[in-house]
């Protein structure tokens, strides 16, 4: 089995690659080759297949997508994207990478499949990292699978458009697509990024390390979360499920934990005490606040649950995962 991972240098990409190398198989098939693609160098974990290569390139540049598909990967994990805040602030960049680049990948797959046609068919499993930002207000108390995609940000729009392409290219038989609408991943290791949701991790990660963290929204803000460990599990599941029961609906909202900022803080208090909570500093950031107001806080991920996707049950579990995976506790 050959695997292609775009965005392999990012946090989730690295963890996904590490998991694939550790498992050595995917869906019962031995992983024989991996291609890791990002605009930065991607680390190759010890024990990776001999035929593992790293490509440093922007997949949205002309001709790059076709090059990536030449080896005919059996499974493609498409994680590469620019994050929400960056996509909102840089309109052209967001569409070039998040939409045009994804479309170029789809087209490269279609054209590769048409080279030999029925003589040598090519139809890879394509796992797409989507987002809950495809939804927009007004929101019901809980967002069902049937809720319309009406994004209120450029990032959400770019992802929703790509979801439509994923469904259409799957319908036409060019690929076998599964869209994974990720909850906000928390707690993200490392440093804050340009995502509008970055503070959700920051108000826990920094205090757990004894550092101050800014909080740009009120305690009442509710959101939908899952750990990096759960996110990797989502992608593995998406690559191995039987998609015949999905029909035309190829993108699914992933399960997660619904929690307010206040509940996050109380979970932090339970894990690290009042001293850690005192390191959270209130700040005013209208840009972030406006984006976050367009997000819902609770989802009814029935379809994903029926398909075998699973996440944590409460925020205490999310903090525990971070302590185990990143702090060695």
How does this structure look, described?
By secondary structure, this protein is α/β, with parallel strands linked by helices. 40% of the residues lie in helices and 18% in strands. It has twelve helices and 14 strands. The strands form four sheets. A seven-stranded parallel β-sheet has the order 5-4-1-6-7-8-12, sandwiched between helices. The chain has a three-stranded mixed β-sheet with strand order 9-11-13. α5 links the parallel β7 and β8 (176-182). α1 (11-23) packs across α7, α6 (198-208) runs parallel beside α8 and α8 (261-272) packs across α12. The radius of gyration is 19 Å and the shape is globular. The model has no long low-confidence stretch (mean pLDDT 95).
Write the layout of secondary structure elements.
Elements: E1 2-6, H1 11-23, E2 25-26, E3 29-30, E4 33-38, E5 51-56, H2 64-69, E6 75-78, H3 84-89, H4 91-116, E7 125-131, H5 154-171, E8 176-182, E9 184-185, H6 198-208, E10 213-215, E11 222-226, H7 228-240, E12 251-253, E13 257-260, H8 261-272, H9 274-277, E14 280-282, H10 286-292, H11 302-306, H12 315-326
Parallel strand pairs: 1-4, 1-6, 4-5, 6-7, 7-8, 8-12, 9-11, 10-14
Antiparallel strand pairs: 2-3, 11-13
